[in-house]
Amino acid sequence: MFNRLIEIFLKFPGIGPRQAKRFAYFLAGQDAKFLKDFADNILEIKKDIKQCDSCFRFYAGPQCEICSNINRDKNLLMIVEKDVDLENIEKAGIYNGKYFVLGGTLSLTNSKNPPAGGLRFKELFNKVQKAKPLEIILATSATAEGENTSLYIEKILEPLRQSQGKHIKITRLGRGLSTGTELEYSDSQTISNALKNRK
Amino acid sequence: MFNRLIEIFLKFPGIGPRQAKRFAYFLAGQDAKFLKDFADNILEIKKDIKQCDSCFRFYAGPQCEICSNINRDKNLLMIVEKDVDLENIEKAGIYNGKYFVLGGTLSLTNSKNPPAGGLRFKELFNKVQKAKPLEIILATSATAEGENTSLYIEKILEPLRQSQGKHIKITRLGRGLSTGTELEYSDSQTISNALKNRK
Amino acid sequence: MFNRLIEIFLKFPGIGPRQAKRFAYFLAGQDAKFLKDFADNILEIKKDIKQCDSCFRFYAGPQCEICSNINRDKNLLMIVEKDVDLENIEKAGIYNGKYFVLGGTLSLTNSKNPPAGGLRFKELFNKVQKAKPLEIILATSATAEGENTSLYIEKILEPLRQSQGKHIKITRLGRGLSTGTELEYSDSQTISNALKNRK
Amino acid sequence: MFNRLIEIFLKFPGIGPRQAKRFAYFLAGQDAKFLKDFADNILEIKKDIKQCDSCFRFYAGPQCEICSNINRDKNLLMIVEKDVDLENIEKAGIYNGKYFVLGGTLSLTNSKNPPAGGLRFKELFNKVQKAKPLEIILATSATAEGENTSLYIEKILEPLRQSQGKHIKITRLGRGLSTGTELEYSDSQTISNALKNRK
User: Which residues does chain B have within 8 Å of residue D139's beta carbon, measured at their own beta carbons?
Assistant: First the structure.
């Protein structure tokens, strides 16, 4: 069970063999009360945290407070990779539309991605078909995997853009200089984007 | 329970708020089977891993394979901070004595140390009184906390050195240049130790 | 002269006391031929490299190959902090206008900046007055100092925008996600910019 | 000359292409007075700094204040790689013998080492033959190159140890835990040395 725990910890995001082993030793050194508390909370996390069947974010409480909020603009649908991205965007306090959590990025190499259950492309298609937003914002990361995922989403949603009664605009987050970027160390792609998007 | 899990993960070694939250989301996204497997292994870790009541290391199997190994020199007792230190020393393959795992270092600042249950100074005293080794090797880290802990151990064991029938030698791991050390970047303490311990 | 050399090396960009001393020792260990070659090239750098009196970049050859290139769009004037920024932008291969090298940023803290001679705000004013570009692109870094410098430039150029016969558009490089940016780790300012500049 | 300066800066210790170019631009931006001051000091460094013909360290002043100091123990000869190592050892304030500066390490890969002129193995042989110290301390770094260099020195000096009237002891700086070393992250070699050298 010690080795099984190490195996399980290796599936945690960002955890390698050395830290997985430290975690297992850490647990071995805890008393029965701590272990029971930990195990109980793990088993009951599903009671506390539910996954919204509309946007697929995790939420506590009776209902998803974003999907159920009628003051948020349902014409805007932002697609994010994961819950922490959504939280970070909410923290910026400048977005008042809806979300859809895809569940990760299309992986090029890392076998840990996508997580068990895969990405929710099918659910996204259904969501867009039903919600009929005016604009879909692809808020994937500016990485090779993020760009690849956005390209794939555009392809999937293409039929909906053409066949639905109204035109759906698909946008991406602006590319350019992020806070702290120095021109001296910028790659050509960033410089090129920053120049095109000047204003 | 989501927030409680974050609290628990914050007690894990080396885990900060951001990663604790990622772990909680990671668990929220796993299926019931994964969660049950994880919780079961946590609850049963004590069945698999036992803590030796002589050296206090964690071991799997019927008995501690170091304490029960009659080919290991019981006249040598090495005191280490934690299990991973012991493992690393075993990996070097050059020590054939016994061990005692203290459970951490006397902390100067970090509130995470010592872990729940405190350090085993009392158990160490009893162990030395009973085992009567010829030499005790203080194998704490060459950090302020490690040095402080070794000083404290020496003070605690002082009565045993004087009252027992035979003299106990207390040694510390050699100080000097560790692999990769360059003279240009060495601190004065290391240079001083390296010079004193030249041979 | 050894200590004077250390003082001089301390003025070099990015050089601290330890490295300045290593450089001085390095020179002390070189033969007379090396030292003469080094000194000669230092004294003659001005013969080889001239500073363009129009854009203030350094150039080799008979004339500044950017200012003298009639195929470059003189209606576009990009203001950069320093020569290496200009080089990096040229490397991206997507800009075909003219440049003006300011000489650094308005410093908030670092006493090494601005370099001897100060920033060329006055020269910039004269350049704009004479060149009458249609657009001025403020290509300072997306740092506090860079933003501060751009604000100051806008203030300085304000009279020219209003009094000249034609309207001068002043733009800044686009803000948003730079290559490699992950949403999870982005600051609110970058997220806000990326959302505003989506397309 | 701009490119020649970049070539020269590339020979400086620890300087890569990007920084070499920044240095060249930095010089191009300085006024004639600065450049003349810099060149003058470079040309005159040999007048200010002399290399001791006994220990080969660089010194300012009328004579090498270590070799000429009759209060320093001439029976102890410490061999160091370079001047900054010697300075760092002096800073520790615990060594009162003499030195010999070898000029670098026997290089396994890096083409920048040894510096122009090569290492002073021959001079070392002559120095030992003449000075007849009681102990030679090999104070090379605890790196592969440092160890290799020490081995080579031992081989070279072997004839002197056997033929001279008195026996010369050759020692090395002590190996073990350097300041800050944690057992958890130590390599087997360091652990092995620390255990052997315990006391």
Answer: 183
Sign of CA dihedral C30, C36, C42, C48: negative
Q: Which of A85, B74, B43, C58 is nearest to D30 (CA)?
A: C58
Interface of A with C in 84-113 (CB under 8 A): 84-85, 88-89, 91-95
What's the N-to-C CA distance of chain D in angstroms? 59
Q: Which of C2, C13, C14 sits opposite D45 (nearest CB)?
A: C2
**Tens-place pLDDT, residues C74-113:** 999 999 999 999 999 999 999 999 999 999 999 776 544 4
CB B5 within 8 A of CB B35: no
CB A136 within 8 A of CB A112: no
Domains of chain A (ranges; CATH) run 2-43 (1.10.8), 50-184+187-194 (3.40.1360.10)
Taking an 8 Å cut-off on Cβ atoms, the answer to whether D183 and B139 are in contact is yes
What is the Cα Rg of chain C in Å? 20
* Residue ranges of C 127-146 with Cβ closer than 8 A to chain A: 137, 139-143, 146
Q: Report CB contact under 8 Å: C46, D60.
A: no
Residues paired with residue A117 on neighbouring β-strands, in sequence order? none
Token output for C4: 């004077």
pLDDT by residue (tens digit) across A2-38? 899 999 999 999 899 989 998 999 999 899 999 999 9
ipTM score of complex: 0.84
